[in-house]
Amino acid sequence: MTTSTASPPETQQTQAPTGEKKKSTGFKFKTYIPAVITGLWNTFKHILKLDGHKTFTLNYPEEKLPVKKGYRGEHRLKKDELGREKCVACFMCQTVCPSVCIRIIAEEAPWEDRDKRPAVFEIDMLRCIYCGMCEEACPCDAIELTETYNVVATNRHAKVYDKDRLLSN
Amino acid sequence: MPEFFLPLLTPILVFGAIMSLVPMLVLGERRIAAAIQDRVGPNRVGPNGLFQPLADVVKLLFKEEIVPAGVDKWMYFLAPALAFLPAAFAFTTIPVGRGVQIADLNMGVLFAITVTSLGVYGISLGGWSSNNKFALLGGLRSNAQVISYEICMGLALIGVLMVSNFFYDVEAGQTAAVVSSGGIVELQSGSIFNWNIFKQPLGFLIFYIAAFAENNRLPFDLPECEAELVGGFHTEYSSMKFAMFFLGEYIAMVTMSALTVTLYLGGWDPGFSLPEGFLGTLISIGAFVVKVLILLFIYIWVRWTLPRFRYDQLMGLGWKVLIPLALFNIFITAVVCLLMG
């Protein structure tokens, strides 16, 4: 066991220096021209996209990479079948949030099936670290992370999303 | 009236063509570079990115013009113009088509070689006057490089002149030396095998390698050398003055390609006998342009293939390899001429 594992590195060590020395003093290397032509042919294959070379660039705004499953992008507040927000203002997400970016002010719900609903539900997207803890903590399945990632704003206030913005996400 | 303007027409057309070729060359360089690196390149401005050069020029014009403290103002402002003018100037003696030449001087080839090497003044003055050590080093390197490679260029040229005059003597029975670029092209016309590249293959190789070094193009772009000299001689230049250096470099590329075509690739000769009259002239201009474009493509192709030479390797290649080879080329040419004549 020990002998079989020890022998291959030895042969590699003895072979590697001679191989490299040959490369840097060989006829092909010293005269430049054959090496240059090899290189030129190599880049020419790239120009003509031979040998399975292909363009890797994605024309971004028109083409997009498919978002991986489980990607955590912007938040969304869900609605139930009656069109009301599912959130019951239990403060679980606000409590669990590690970056303290969720601000909730509760009010009394006008409906029979729950006591509270959020009057204000704000997420500061610039503080958010998109960890998904709010989604996991939510007992009503009311908040989730979407796959939206490419959202820009021209000032910081626009990145504090209120309830309507999150419901429409 | 038309007779008065006719001599003006050729210079205007030729320089207009060069000046409009340069932006397309920049775009071409970027697109070819992208293709070699498996990218797309600029394709946003206009159809397929065709108007990208316009955007570049507008951007450069509106950039802030910065003159650093401690520069030698007179030379600092002079250098970009000096980098750009000689290259354009050398184009006067190059025949771009049958009978289309701004000035067919007696010593046209020598004139072109001399004037193109004046371009180094712009680079070294720019480096000297910038009050910046990187720029100074770039300028110095450019000087050393041009001096070294000018020699092998001149020696390779001797081979061409020997061959031209040898055949000139035999065929026309004249003893006058042909040093005019028009005459050299005339001697190469008729058949593709009259081209000097077949008589002087080694000389062509030496000349073309030296042309790369003269134009400071990779693998010999040591004056610029982004890796170790920041930007080399144009480190301290911004806005339109930087654009002038850029323009000068590309025009020098066009001029060098045109000179190589004139000397070795038959100039405007398309490889078959041309019809008489205006049509023949047009075909000859087309053949010349196609050859120049192919050489320019090789310039770009080589740039994005080879890494930069180290400084000692550059000097070693110039003095220990190319100059002896060029002398050997002259020797072989002389022996062959003696044996044949």
Radius of gyration of chain A: 30 Å
- N-to-C series of helices and strands of chain A: HHHEHEEHEEH
CATH class of the largest domain in chain A: Alpha Beta
How can the largest sheet of chain B be summarized? none
Quaternary structure of the protein: heterodimer
Q: What is the SS-derived class of chain B? A: mainly alpha
Describe this structure in words.
The complex is a heterodimer of chains A (169) and B (341). Chain A has six helices and five strands; from the N terminus they run αααβαββαββα. Chain A is of the alpha+beta class. Chain A starts with a helix and ends with a helix. Chain B is an all-alpha fold and 341 residues long. Chain B is globular. At the A-B interface, α3 of A face α1 of B.
Secondary structure layout:
The complex is a heterodimer of chains A (169) and B (341).
Chain A: H1 2-25, H2 27-30, H3 33-48, E1 75-77, H4 92-96, E2 102-108, E3 116-124, H5 133-137, E4 143-145, E5 160-161, H6 163-168
Antiparallel strand pairs in A: 1-4, 2-3, 3-5
Chain B: H1 2-36, H2 52-61, H3 73-89, H4 108-129, H5 133-172, H6 181-188, H7 196-199, H8 201-214, H9 226-229, H10 239-264, H11 277-303, H12 311-340
List keywords for this structure.
heterodimer, A: 169 residues, Alpha-Beta Plaits, 3-stranded antiparallel sheet, two-stranded antiparallel sheet, 6 helices, 36% helix, rod-shaped, disordered N terminus, B: 341 residues, mainly alpha
State the gist of this model.
The complex is a heterodimer of chains A (169) and B (341). Helices cover 36% and strands 14% of the residues of chain A.
